[in-house]
């Protein structure tokens, strides 16, 4: 189940990243609340897209090979949690903290929480192999 969740999140964040990289102005206009953060800056939107593409890659790698990709997923979770923290700080300092936090919850905070949960989840135990002792 953890691997499926990581794969689905990889697809979602990968599509978001590609939209930011390929059509930054369309992404800027389409995502609720983004226009309130300041004037459009294509370079900045693409920088964020590059970060999200990296996160999507680590999630995809984790979905494929969890043990090998856990360090990359930890780094990605760190980025997403810090990013969510910045959004939370800005919301608290703004005129409508609750409204801004609710607006950002699904696209920012929830993505960070899920990725952090995946990164911190214990590795699944290997199933015991049947013993051949006593087999005739």
SSE sequence, one letter per element: HHHHH
Radius of gyration: 19 Å
Count, helices: 5
Q: What gap, in angstroms, lies between the N and C termini? A: 37 Å
Low-confidence residue ranges: none
Oligomer: single chain
Report the average pLDDT across residues. Answer: 92
Structural description of this entry:
Helices cover 76% and strands 0% of the residues. The protein has helices at residues 2-22, 24-30, 42-64, 66-93, 97-120. α1 (2-22) runs antiparallel to α3 (42-64) and α4 runs antiparallel to α5 (97-120). It is elongated. The model has no long low-confidence stretch (mean pLDDT 92).
Quick recap:
This protein has helices spanning 2-22, 24-30, 42-64, 66-93, 97-120. The chain is mainly alpha-helical and 136 residues long. Helix 1 crosses helix 2 and helix 1 packs antiparallel against helix 3 (42-64).
């Amino acid at each position: 189940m953890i691997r499926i969740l990581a794969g689905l999140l990889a697809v979602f964040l990968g599509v978001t990243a590609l939209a930011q990289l390929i059509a930054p102005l369309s992404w800027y206009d389409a995502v609720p609340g983004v226009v309130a953060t300041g004037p459009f800056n294509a370079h900045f939107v693409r920088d964020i897209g590059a970060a999200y593409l990296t996160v999507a890659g680590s999630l995809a790698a984790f979905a494929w090979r969890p043990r090998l990709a856990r360090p990359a997923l930890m780094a990605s979770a760190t980025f997403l949690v810090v990013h969510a923290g910045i959004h939370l700080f800005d919301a608290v300092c703004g005129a409508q903290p609750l409204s801004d936090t609710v607006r950002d919850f699904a696209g920012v905070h929830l993505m960070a929480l899920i990725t952090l949960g995946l990164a911190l989840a214990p590795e699944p135990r290997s199933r015991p192999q049947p013993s051949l002792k006593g087999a005739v």
